Amino acid sequence: MRRRGFSLIEMLVVVGIISLLVALLLPAVMSAREASRRTHCLNNLHQLGVAFHAYHAQYDQLPPVYVMVRNTEGPSQLPRFLGVAGGYDDLNFHSYAEFLLPFTEYAVLYEEIDFSQPSFAPVDLGPIGLPNYTADNQSVIDTPIPLYLCPSAPREENPHEITWNDLSIPIVHKSGGNDYGPSSGVSDPLKSLAIPQATRLAEGALSNNHLDLSLGDVIDGQSTTALMWEIAGRPELRKGRKRAGSVVNGGGWSEVLNAENWFDGHTESGVPCAVNCTNAQESGVYSFHADGVHLLLCDGSARMLHENLSLDVFVGLVTFQGETIVPDF
Q1: Residue 201 — pLDDT band, cuts 50, 70, 90?
Q2: Residue-wise pLDDT tens digits, 98-145
Q3: Alpha-carbon span 41 to 24, nearest angstrom
Q4: CA 160/CA 154 separation, integer angstroms
Q5: Alpha-carbon distance values, 222 to 82, 84, 180, 191, 270 (Å)
Q6: Of 46, 169, 197, 203, which alpha carbon lies 20 to 30 A from 217's?
Q7: Rounded to the nearest 5 degrees, what angle is found at the Cα of 119, between the Cα atoms of 107 and 174?
């Protein structure tokens, strides 16, 4: 009797055809998945825009990017660049990311925060002359919040551990991740591209130099002034499209150094670059998208910004009182 079946050559041909089809379809599938992640990432910023405007409608101002008091009348334990002036030290830090929670679906987390003590409490600051804070805010801020995460950004751990070294003693705590950051302003060398504003600094709309900014104060136009930027992938440091093998702060949604983003456009090569060059602290904006980065504008709209955008246009988007007309971007 003659047995029916496939020969070895026929099997190899079939396997080869299937492999070819998979090779052809896989890029399309991966592209479709990234398109979905990209849309989700953009929608997060749009939802944050809704929250900012809801906060503004209730309080007639944007939320302060963070609150903290530093002593200016005597020896201070706090860094001079952090906090508002006062007659005492108070490390009772809280940020915009917390203030927006009641206007999102995560309002229940807001109710669990003790705002009379720092967001990263419990922490004993007696060794530097500050109180021993005992509230359990840590159990709230180490909660991963999808609204603050871009699905395109890889993240090995969430929450992640943070060490804040700006005081005379290190403060170690955990925070849920954040792939976005406020638009605080620009510093050297990018500041040379900014038109002098009402202050000596080239400020953004979310700067701690003004705690009660109204959208009416954005004289450069709400549709051409940035409010938030995508600064993804932290705490893992990225340079170009490669891992740099070290840790960078600013990647937590209730982290002190997430609330400070004074962009200098710095790169190690010495060529100024502000978009998709690095996610290092206060250097520029960064995403894992192929050709650009997302931003949230003061009018509440969110859009993609091409990574080849000129530096002067980038600075124009950051500053809110430069009295400049930003061209179509």
Answers
A1: low
A2: 999 999 999 999 999 999 999 999 999 999 888 999 999 999 999 999
A3: 27
A4: 13
A5: 27, 26, 19, 21, 32
A6: 46
A7: 100
Beta carbons within 10 angstroms of residue 60's beta carbon: 11
3-state SS of 155-221 is CCCCCEEEEECCCCCCEEEEECECCEEECCEECCCHHHHCCCCCCCCEEECCCCCCCCCCHHHCCCC
| Peptide linkage before 189 cis (omega within 30 of 0) | yes
> How do beta strands 262-263 and 226-230 pair?
unpaired
Please tell me the distance from the alpha carbon of residue 207 to that of residue 214, in angstroms, as a whole number: 12
3-class DSSP assignment, residue 123: strand
Residue type, 115: F
Cut 0.85: pTM above it = yes
Residues 132-147 have pLDDT tens digits of 999 999 999 999 999 9
